[in-house]
Amino acid sequence: MSLRICGAARRGGDGVTTSAVPMKGKGSARARSRWGFVLALAVLLGICLFAAYRSALFRLERVQIGGNERLSQAEVMAIAGVMPGDLKWEVTAERVRQRLLADPWVESAGVTWRGNALVITVTEREPLALLQYHGRFYLVLDAEGRVLGQRLLEEGERLPVVSGVTVERALRGDVLDDLGLKDALTLLWWTGEPLLEQLSEVHVRADRYLRLYLTGGTTVEVGVLPDDAAAREDHIQTQLRGLLDQLDRVPASARGRCQIDLRVYGKVLAQGCQ
C-alpha cells in the first residue's frame, strides 16, 4: 500500500521511495479571498473616483465677466471657450487666459476661480482708425496698426479713415508694417477731442506726406513728419495746438473752403478761412 506523506521525499523501509504531495488547504483559499477583496476594493475606488471626477462639485456653475465694452459677454465666453457645466480641471485659469489673449480685441486678461465661479476681467484694445481694404470693406486698426477686424464704413462707431495705403491681404491680429500708415496712426493717437470728432480722413501719399480732411470741408496740409520719435511727438503736439486755435476762429460758413498749412514747425498758415 502506498502512502501520501506531507513533507520531503522519504525512502520507506521496503526500499520504495515516496514523494511528498503539497496539500491544498485553507492557506490557498485565504490568498484567493484576499486578492478578490483587493480587486473589489480597487474597482469600488475607481468608481468613486470617476463619480467624483464627474461630480457637480467640480463643475463650472457661472461666469462673471468684467471690463468688456465692445465685446459682449457671449463673445467673451466664446473666446474663452467656457460654458456652465465644464469641469474645473478642463478649463484651468491659465488656459482660459491664453485663449483670451489670442484674440486681437483683448489687450490683457485676468482669470481666477472662486469656488465654482469663473471670474474673467478683460481690457480691450481701442480702435483708432479704419483703413480702406477691398471693395466696401475697411480694416479696423488700433494705434499699433493691429487688425482688430473688418467692417463696412457705416457699421459701428464713427472712426477716421486712412486712405492711400494699399493692403492686399490682412488677417485679424496682423500688425501692418507700413511707414506711412504708422505716421497717420501716430498723428491720430495724439489728436484728442474735439478735433478727432471733426477729422474725417487722413490721406497718406507714397512719400509719407499727410493731408487731413475735416467734416466741414476744411483741408489741412500736415506734410512729412520727422523720423526722430521725440522730434515727431513735439512737432505733432505743437502743430495740433496751433490747428485747434485756428479752427476756433474759422466761421462755419468758411469751413468748406478753408485750407490750413501745418508744414512749417511752429506756424499755422490759413487761406480762405475768413
Number of domains: 2
Query: Proportion of β residues?
Result: 15-25%
- Structural class comes to alpha/beta
- SSE sequence, one letter per element: EEHEHHEEEEEEHHEEEHEE
The value of Rg in angstroms is: 39 Å
Number of helical stretches of at least 4 residues: 6
Supply the CATH architecture of the largest domain: 3-Layer(aba) Sandwich
**How many DSSP-defined strands?**
14
What does the overall shape look like? Answer: elongated
Q: Strand count, sense and closure of the main sheet?
A: 9 strands, mixed
Measured distance between first and last alpha carbons: 141 Å
Main location: membrane
Pfam families: FtsQ_DivIB_C, POTRA_1
Transmembrane segments: 35-53
Domain POTRA: 58-125
What does the secondary structure layout of this molecule look like, with pairings?
Elements: E1 10-11, E2 17-18, H1 26-53, E3 62-66, H2 73-80, H3 93-101, E4 106-114, E5 117-124, E6 129-132, E7 137-141, E8 147-152, E9 161-163, H4 179-190, H5 195-198, E10 199-204, E11 210-214, E12 219-223, H6 229-248, E13 259-261, E14 269-271
Parallel strand pairs: 3-5, 6-9, 9-10, 12-13
Antiparallel strand pairs: 1-2, 4-5, 6-7, 7-8, 10-11, 11-12, 13-14
